[in-house]
Write a structure and sequence with these properties.
The protein is an alpha/beta fold. The protein contains 16 helices and eight strands. It folds into three domains: 211 residues, Rossmann fold (3-Layer(aba) Sandwich), CATH 3.40.50; 81 residues; 89 residues, Winged helix-like DNA-binding domain superfamily/Winged helix DNA-binding domain (Arc Repressor Mutant, subunit A, Orthogonal Bundle), CATH 1.10.10. Keywords: ATP-binding, Heme, Iron, Metal-binding, Nucleotide-binding.
Length: 411
């Protein structure tokens, strides 16, 4: 097959040629946009899931939907070593520019509030060179969103931006990727601001995406966050959607997949969108004729697995210290033993039901022959690095699908 015409796109956050299996989320979000624009009450949205399930892709698709509705939009990616002020100021600056408010004085006032909010990061009396400027020409508005208390400032900031959108007869959507990496104070402030905006009925929503434990992070910050957001779990694709993700792009290039080849691809990828693209690209390049058959999948699978072992799995494994790697391997062994026990007991899951690879921290400690307390530093470090997560007390799981299998076969 012509590699130049290869339609598959295995990239971080890169939209696949066919966004299969996400129609429900897209349609629901379009309803949210219309309701908010009409002054109807709606909650902000939180997307959660493992790495490689397409959260960032879906986040970008939702943003595009908001742009088509003439909303102002901005996006940021949270980082554990960065406070919220500067990236949020940049995102809101872009959103205000997209709104295109007809009264420049109103726009300049809100831009001035955004600038004051951003510059408060440097602190009172900071030198000019240390005062970060988000590219806003309007002068900073003193006494608004610049108190230094992030919760007070964020409520004032989002209220002003939401008010500007209401005057325009439109809305503003702020998209936050890797939301679980926000600091505790920033999470608390964001929840409080969303709560205030919701009560005020202003047309501003936050759409966050993060790992499966993000709801627990929000709940630990503000108890009412369970009612403040609408949570959607983004998981692997069911068989029919996975087939579409492969077959539709192929048809656009006048090619096809055999039924047996599609079955083999689902078995290899588990329906995870990133794996579908990675395997799809490798198989296309190896196949000689159309339709692509099961033999082509067998030939190309080792190449796809080798690439994933280096770029997707290996890069994460390399970030762990020797002690942390021991912990990860023990997790993989315990999960495999639990799965084998479930299979023997006839407790196999259906193909469309996502696997639960979570394990007890006490079982990991037993596997290593150590006390759970002695392993706390390794576990906490892995949590901070985003290699594992804990959505339930006493249980942990990998943030990357198939990571346990990789560890058992390669590490």
């Amino acid at each position: 097959m012509d590699p130049v015409r290869n339609p598959y796109a295995p990239g971080a956050g890169q939209r696949p040629p066919e966004l299969a299996g996400r129609d429900e989320q897209l349609e629901a979000f379009d309803v949210v946009l219309q309701r908010v624009a009409r002054g109807r009450p709606e909650r902000s949205l939180i997307l959660t899931g493992l790495r490689g399930v397409g959260k960032t892709v879906l986040l970008n698709a939702l943003r595009s939907a908001a742009v088509r509705r003439h909303w102002g939009t901005g996006k940021l990616e949270a980082r554990p070593d960065q406070h919220l002020r500067r990236p949020l100021a940049s995102a809101l600056h872009q959103a205000v520019r997209e709104l295109g408010h007809p009264r420049p004085d109103e726009t300049d006032h809100v831009l001035g509030v955004i600038r004051a909010f951003a510059q408060r990061e440097a602190g009172v009396g900071a030198r000019l060179k240390d005062q970060w400027n988000p590219g806003i020409d309007a002068p900073a508005v003193r006494g608004r969103a610049d108190s230094g208390d992030i919760e007070i400032d964020l409520v004032e900031l989002l209220s002003d931006v939401g008010g500007l959108a209401a005057d325009r007869g439109s809305g503003v959507a702020v998209f936050i990727d890797e939301m679980q990496d926000l600091g505790p104070d920033d999470v608390s402030a964001l929840c409080a601001a969303c709560h205030e905006i919701s009560q005020s009925g202003l047309p501003l929503i936050v759409v966050g995406a993060g790992l499966p434990h993000l709801p627990a992070v929000l709940s630990a910050s503000k108890s009412y966050s369970e009612r403040l957001f609408r949570y959607q779990r983004i998981d692997r694709l069911p068989r029919a959607a996975a087939d579409l993700a492969l077959s539709v792009p192929a048809e656009d290039e006048e090619a096809a997949w055999s039924v047996d080849a599609l079955a083999a691809m689902y078995a290899a990828t588990g329906g995870y969108p990133y794996f579908i693209q990675a395997y799809g690209k490798a198989v296309w390049d190896r196949a000689t004729t159309s339709p692509i058959d099961v033999a082509d999948v067998g030939v190309a699978a080792p190449e796809a697995e080798a690439e994933l072992a280096v770029g997707f799995f290996g890069s994460r494994y390399d970030r762990a210290t020797p002690g942390e790697r021991d912990y990860l391997r023990a997790m993989a062994d315990v999960a495999a033993e639990a799965a084998a026990g479930g299979d023997q007991a006839g407790d196999r899951r259906s193909d469309d039901q996502p696997p639960d690879d979570s394990v007890l921290t006490s079982d990991v400690a037993s596997s290593l022959g150590k006390k759970p307390q002695s392993l706390s530093p390794a576990r906490d470090s892995l949590l901070k690095k985003g290699l594992i997560y804990s959505a339930e007390r006493g249980r942990i799981a990998f943030t990357v699908p198939h990571f346990g299998r990789y560890l058992r076969e390669n590490a």
